[in-house]
Amino acid sequence: MPPSPRAPNRDAPQAKRGGLALMLLVLPLLAVNIAGTEYYVAGLPERVRHPWHAWLRPSGYVGQSAGFLAFVVFVFLWLYPLRKKYKKLAFTGTVGKWLDVHVTTALALPLLLAIHAAWRSDGVIGLGLTAMLIVCASGVIGRYIYTRIPRAKSGVELTRDEVAAQRRDLLVELGQATGIAPHVVEQMLDLSGDSSATDNAAKVLWRLFTNDLMRWSRTRDLRKKFAAAAPDGRPIGRAALASAVRLADREMSLRQQTRMLDATHRVFRYWHVAHRPFAITALVAVVIHVVVVVAVGATWLR
After folding, report:
1. Which residues contact 175 (CB under 8 A, 6 or more apart)?
2. Does some domain include residue 72?
3. Which of 61, 142, 153, 273 shows a CA-CA span of 20 to 30 A to 239?
4. How many CB atoms lie within 10 A of CB 35?
């Protein structure tokens, strides 16, 4: 009996849109940083006489505009914790989508700050710049850990029973798509590896990373095996093969996530403890910097 048609996969279009949004944010900022290299590598006396000084200095047209935009972005990033804390804001979107926007937007901050600071990091703004860079780097790590906890599309964490049910459904679909018995498919997808409750954070992160590499390698092998094990001796179509490989990757991912769940939760709690102080430090430094700049009139705004 042929498998029932699957709903279209929405993850790929969302990933493409996220990648496009990131490029639209990052590429213009990269262009400004690259174009201003001659100014940024010059010493302070040479900068003052440089023809781009009025534009690229921190209080210049481009430099200060980047600072204003960075401040707006930084304030916007604080809306994500509010969305997580208050369920009444659910109408604004799921936590998962908010996190995607939060991370994508935050990746533009280092480039904006580099333009605003003219690649200098002294004084209070230096403290804020350093804190922001640490926050951005830790945010990327936090996003990575977050995605290693099984969740529904709404962002709500799945229970172990829900994960087990999803895995069973995936094995059945894989059996229908490839013509291989589900229990045989399960054996083909088995990846060894576990995490001890005593592993430190660095070791857990390393295990998560190596798990991804193992799954990527196994997925490449499965593509060949599925193509060779076509049902009824007929070759599997390209779309069906891609769907089967995607299902296999999802099943292996859920299995790995379940094995590492306790350790991942523990590291995620540590990450929250470390991430928040740097974020608050950056906020305080930025507010002080903005207040001082406005107070002394170091701005081209009138």
Report:
1. 181, 182, 185
2. yes
3. 153
4. 13
